[in-house]
Prior knowledge:
By secondary structure, the chain is an alpha/beta fold. The chain has ten helices and nine strands.
Amino acid sequence: xxxxxxxxxxxxxxxxxxxxxxxxxxxxxxxxxxxxxxxxxxxxxxxxxxxxxxxxxxxxxxxxxxxxxxxxxxxxxxxxxxxxxxxxxxxxxxxxxxxxxxxxxxxxxxxxxxxxxxxxxxxxxxxxxxxxxxxxxxxxxxxxxxxxxxxxxxxxxxxxxxxxxxxxxxxxxxxxxxxxxxxxxxxxxxxxxxxxxxxxxxxxxxxxxxxxxxxxxxxxxxxxxxxxxxxxxxxxxxxxxxxxxxxxxxxxxxxxxxxxxxxxxxxxxxx
Length: 271
């Protein structure tokens, strides 16, 4: 079993915590946009409270460990590894509880190029434990607003993990999928589950709009978030999101493997 000390060292060495690649400028821009209720950063969350930039900075300093100094405006951002470890333990506890009651679960990612392997391992373990890993809305079209305008994507699943693909892009059906922050895919999945008369998930696991979109609809949701994703931390503070793990969500995909082992061991889901 990977020890907490070994995982802490890995988090720092891999840039998952400590000094991360996300810049302070990018993070502060996200806090400013969130305070203005910009849907590009609210990720499907409708905040209960009025969050201004100063309040968001204090929240992110508390939940992530970023500098709480408003005069700190540039340079790389920072995530406290102790906060990451604590949140990973809570994340694993929620997975273990879902597995123990064999709850139906839905997993989805807006970061398939980086995080697909992490979620696939969780889906495999939950399925082996007797959970129904849901795959609603397979092949459904979703129109998502991007910086290039409105584009149509398809909801797809890779070994039980939802993502979106460009239907006619080069290598369509083979590439890992498209990056997205949108809550529309999880809304489509949940709507299809209802229309099809199938079970709804009791737990949604993922990132970006998958977590915030599900949490906003009252479904328990847990996920990963970087310093420029304040919506998940706001959702956690307000009670719509159960657990948010602060970490850099854009490092090499193999750097997440030790986290996978740690979480599955903590959740008693290792095989």
